[in-house]
C-alpha cells in the first residue's frame, strides 16, 4: 500500500506512433516483453469498457524457479486499491441515508469525545475518505491486532488514531489509518465486520464471486501466484498470513480475479459516465471528484490526462509482496488494470509501462469517445 503510480500525460497524442497491432498480436505479446524487461515473475492485465472486458491476459509463472504459469483465472492481491471499495461501501450507506459524507467522525466514538484534540472534533467522513483528516499514515498494526473480535480491534484503532493525530486537518496526507477509521465507522452502523458488510453490499450484488481477504493460495501449495519480495526472490511462505494484519482490511487486504476486479471497475466507469450502475450517480460523482485543491476524491486519485478526454481516475496498491494498479477514463468509457505478484519500486515502473501500453493499444484500435 504505497504511493500512486504516474503515467505519461501525452499518451493519447503518441497513439498514432503505435501500429494497430491487435489483429495479429495478442495482449500477452504486449505484456510479456515488459515482464521480461523488469524481470518479474508474472504480469497480468485487462482492458475493459463500460460493457466489460475487451482483452485480458496473464504471462509468466506463479513462482520464480518453477514452470507453473499464471492464468487469467488466478487471484491477485489488490493492496490499497481496496480503499476505493471501502469508499463505495460507505456510499451504500449514504445512498440509504444511514450516513452522510459530512457526518462528524467523532459522533461515532462518543466515549472519547471529551479527550479528542479540539482540531479533530469537526473532522468529517469526507475528510477521512479524502485523506485530509490529519491522521497518522500508519499505526502499530501488529501491536493492535490481538485476540478478540475485529470490530473491537478496529474501533480501538480508530479511537487511538483520533486521539493522536499527526497533522492539522484539511491538508492531504495519504494514510492507511484513514480507511481503518472508515471501516470502524461502517462496522458501527452495520453491526458486522467490514468483510461481511462489503461482501453483502458490494461483492455479491456485483457478482464478484472470487473475492477473499489476505494473502494468496493454500499454505505450501502453488495453487495461486506466490508472493515475491522487491528483490525478486519468492517469500519463504505463501497463504492467508502472507499479508498485513486483518485489522488493516478496509485499507488493503482484498484479493480477487481480474474478471471480478473488472466487474467493480466497470461499475465505477458506468457510474462516472452517468450510466446505470449499482448505486445512484451522485455517489460516484462524490467518489470521483477531487476535493477542494486536492487531486483525490474518495478512494481515487483524480488527474487530468489528454488520452482520457479529461479526468482520469487511478490508484495503486501493494502489500510489499504484490502490486496492482488501475486507470479509468470515464469520459471515454474505458479503463485498464495491471497486477503482478512482486512488490517494490521497479514493479511500480513496470506496471506503469504495462498500463501505458494497454491504453495506447486501446486508443490505436478503437475510436475514442468524443
Describe the secondary structure blueprint for this structure.
Blueprint lengths: L10 H4 L12 H11 L4 E8 L2 E9 L14 E3 L4 H14 L29 H5 L11 H4 L5 H14 L12 H15 L3 H10 L8 E2 L35 H4 L1 E4 H15 L8 H8 L12 E5 L4 E8 L5 E7 L4 E7 L4 H21 L5
Antiparallel strand pairs: 1-2, 1-9, 3-5, 4-5, 6-7, 7-8, 8-9
Number of helices: 12
Name of the level-1 CATH class of the largest domain: Alpha Beta
Structural class: alpha+beta
Radius of gyration: 20 Å
Alpha-carbon distance between the two ends: 35 Å
* Count of extended strands: 9
The structural domain count equals 2
Summarize the main sheet: 6 strands, antiparallel
CATH architecture of the largest domain: 3-Layer(aba) Sandwich
Notable characteristics:
370 residues; 14% strand; disordered N terminus; six-stranded antiparallel β-sheet; 2 domains; Beta-lactamase; globular; three-stranded antiparallel β-sheet; alpha+beta
Describe this structure in words.
The chain has two domains: 11-81 and 209-365, Beta-lactamase; 85-198, 3-Layer(aba) Sandwich (Beta-lactamase). The chain has a six-stranded antiparallel β-sheet. The two termini are 35 Å apart. The chain has 370 residues and is an alpha+beta fold. The protein contains twelve helices and nine strands. Residues 1-24 have low confidence and may be disordered.
Short synopsis of the structure:
The chain is α+β, with helices and mostly antiparallel strands and 370 residues long.
Amino acid at each position: 500500500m504505497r504511493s500512486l503510480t504516474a503515467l505519461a500525460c501525452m499518451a493519447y497524442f503518441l497513439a498514432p506512433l503505435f501500429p494497430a497491432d491487435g489483429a495479429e498480436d495478442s495482449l500477452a505479446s504486449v505484456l510479456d516483453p515488459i515482464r521480461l524487461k523488469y524481470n518479474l515473475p508474472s504480469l497480468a492485465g485487462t482492458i475493459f469498457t463500460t460493457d466489460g472486458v475487451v482483452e485480458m491476459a496473464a504471462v509468466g509463472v506463479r513462482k520464480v524457479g518453477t514452470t507453473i504459469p499464471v492464468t487469467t483465472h488466478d487471484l491477485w492481491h489488490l493492496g490499497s486499491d481496496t480503499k476505493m471499495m471501502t469508499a463505495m461501501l460507505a456510499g451504500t450507506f449514504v445512498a440509504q441515508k444511514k450516513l452522510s459524507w459530512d457526518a462528524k467522525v467523532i459522533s461515532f466514538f462518543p466515549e472519547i469525545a471529551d479527550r479528542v484534540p479540539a482540531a479533530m472534533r469537526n473532522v468529517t467522513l469526507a475528510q477521512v475518505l479524502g485523506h485530509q483528516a490529519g491522521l497518522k499514515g500508519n499505526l502499530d498494526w501488529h501491536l493492535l491486532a490481538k485476540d478478540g473480535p475485529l470490530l473491537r480491534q478496529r474501533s480501538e484503532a480508530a479511537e487511538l488514531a483520533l486521539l493522536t493525530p499527526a497533522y492539522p486537518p484539511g491538508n492531504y496526507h495519504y494514510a492507511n489509518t484513514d480507511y481503518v477509521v472508515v471501516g470502524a465507522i461502517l462496522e458501527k452502523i452495520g453491526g458486522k465486520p467490514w468483510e461481511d458488510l462489503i461482501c453483502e453490499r458490494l461483492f455479491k450484488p456485483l457478482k464478484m464471486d472470487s473475492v477473499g481477504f489476505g494473502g494468496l493460495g493454500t499454505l505450501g501449495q502453488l495453487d495461486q501466484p506466490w508472493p515475491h519480495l522487491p528483490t525478486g526472490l519468492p517469500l519463504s511462505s505463501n497463504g492467508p498470513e502472507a499479508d498485513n494484519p486483518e485489522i488493516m482490511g478496509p485499507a488493503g487486504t482484498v484479493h480477487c480475479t481480474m474478471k471480478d476486479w473488472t466487474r467493480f471497475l466497470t461499475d465505477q466507469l458506468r457510474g462516472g459516465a452517468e450510466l446505470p450502475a449499482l448505486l445512484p450517480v451522485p455517489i460516484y460523482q462524490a467518489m470521483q471528484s477531487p476535493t477542494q485543491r486536492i487531486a483525490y476524491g474518495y478512494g481515487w486519485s483524480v488527474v487530468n490526462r489528454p488520452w482520457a478526454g479529461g479526468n482520469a481516475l487511478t490508484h495503486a496498491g501493494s502489500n510489499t509482496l504484490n502490486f496492482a494498479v488501475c486507470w479509468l477514463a470515464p469520459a471515454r468509457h474505458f479503463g485498464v488494470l495491471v497486477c503482478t505478484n512482486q512488490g517494490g519500486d521497479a514493479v511500480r515502473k513496470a506496471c506503469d509501462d504495462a498500463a501505458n501500453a494497454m491504453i495506447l493499444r486501446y486508443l490505436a484500435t478503437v475510436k475514442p469517445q468524443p
